[in-house]
Every structure is written in C-alpha cells, then in structure tokens.
Amino acid sequence: MITHELLDAPRIRHGFFTREGGVSEGWFASLNCGFGSGDDAGRVAANRARAAERLAVAANRLVTCYQIHSADAVVVKTPWRREAAPRADGMVTTVPGLALGVLAADCAPVLLADAEAGVIGACHAGWRGALTGIVDGTVEEMKRQGARLERIAAVVGPCIGKRSYEVGPEFPAPFLAAEPADADLFMPAPRPDHFLFDLAGYVLRRLRRLPIGAAAATGGDTAAEVPRFFSYRRACLRGERDYGRLISAIALIP
Questions:
Q1: What's the number of domains the chain is made of?
Q2: Is the full-model pTM beyond 0.90?
Q3: Left (φ > 0), alpha (ψ -120 to 50) or beta: where does 239 sit?
Q4: In-domain check, residue 205
C-alpha cells in the first residue's frame, strides 16, 4: 500500500494499493479488487476485505462505482450493494466509517481531502474523464459538501507512465484545443506521428489550475512495473485475455 504525506491527517486513512498481498492467482495475482474481471468473485471479495481492513473500515463499507470514464461525481451517504452501484467516476462523502474506492489498471486514481472540514473524495481519471472534467466535478462536489478549495489536498496515484503511454496522431488535438499550453505533456514516440502522453502530469495540472491547496503524485508506472501493478495495456501487448484491477481508497475515521 502506497501513501502520501499530503493526505496524512488524524481522521483520514488512505492507500494506493499495489497488486501484492491478496489471494487471487494467475493473471489476477494477487490483490485483484475488480469484480469486473474474470476472477473468482469470492477471491475479489476477500481482497477488498483486506484493503478495507487496512483502512480501518468494515468490508461492506468500502464502496466503488460502476466506472464509465465520465466527469460525473456522486455524494455517498450509505454503502450500496454491488449491483446497485451508481454509474460515475467520482465520489465524495462526509460520513465517517465509509471508504471511497476507485479501480484502475493504467488510469489515474485520485484521492482528495479537506481534513479540517471532514470532506473526502476519490475519482478515476482515465484520459477521457480527465479531459472532460472528472477532477473538476469531484472538487466541485466536495465544495458543495463544505470543503474549501484552498484546504483541499489531492494525490494522483500510480498510473501508466509517460514512456509507456504511446498514443496516435489524433490524440493530442482535443487536449490542445482546450489548452494549448499542454503541448509539453506530449513528446514524440519512436513510431512516426505518434506521441508519449503524461497522464499523471495532465491530471496534476488540472488540479493545480482549479487551484486547490496542494497536489502531488506518488509516481509509479503501472504498465512497466510488472511485480507491483496490474496494467490493461501490458495485458493487451502480451496477448493476455484478462487483467486485475488495482484499488485506491480513502476513508474518514470516526
């Protein structure tokens, strides 16, 4: 489990979990927390229970959404059944004893907190959700629940690294149309007319433009670091039929 000092506070627990320390096997070894994978559901539940325990919450109070690469964030008051999970990519709560979890396997997980107000958030930022505003939407919902912009701290967790994230010639256009200054987040790839994209850098920049009080990234390249992380892109390049999901979560402690 990876933590960051920006989110260290007496009432807050958080963690960007690696793939290590679980019960799953094969492609899913070992802390696969995604029910959407082809892994045994009992093993996924056991892995999520282990993550919840590290956050000092009950297993049934670790919640995740049905993620759809959107800019939508929801307020969480009570835990939901898995089949009733809302379709969204961000969550916010003020309820102690609830853990907000996001799943990823190359996309960027973001955990946020205004520790003084007792407002926490979590969001899943793939390139599409990041571009359309999932970070902004999550922060805006935190403000509606009592957070103040200048007190919010956010950390971007491990995601696909710039040198692993090759994109096609059409990819930069919508980013540069929105903000020409983001051209420095793209560098030429070895293949002609392709680029390497800095996803973590882009998400950090979106956070800092709001601007919130503090933002940082843990580092880590999910595609390149096989023993530590699951990766959708790595699985595709290797011709593997499935892949595990990493969980990142934050909780308010009573």
A1: 2
A2: yes
A3: left
A4: no
Indicate whether 203 belongs to any domain.
no
Which pLDDT does position 254 carry in this prediction?
87
Domain of 14, CATH number, reads 3.60.140.10
pLDDT 10s digits, 231-254: 999 999 999 999 999 999 999 998
Work out whether strand 153-156 and strand 119-125 pair parallel, antiparallel, or are unpaired.
unpaired
| Virtual torsion, Cα 186, 224, 52, 14, nearest 10 deg | -50
Q: State how far the Cα of 148 lies from the Cα of 126, in Å rounded to an integer.
A: 25
Helices and strands per DSSP (H, E), number in the chain? 6, 13
Q: Is 197 left (phi over 0), alpha (psi -120 to 50) or beta?
A: beta
Alpha-helical (H) ranges within 88-227 are 127-132, 134-144, 172-178, 199-209
List the domain range (segments joined by +) for residue 109.
Answer: 5-159+211-252
pLDDT at residue 40, as a whole number: 98
Give the pLDDT confidence score for residue 187 in this predicted structure. 98
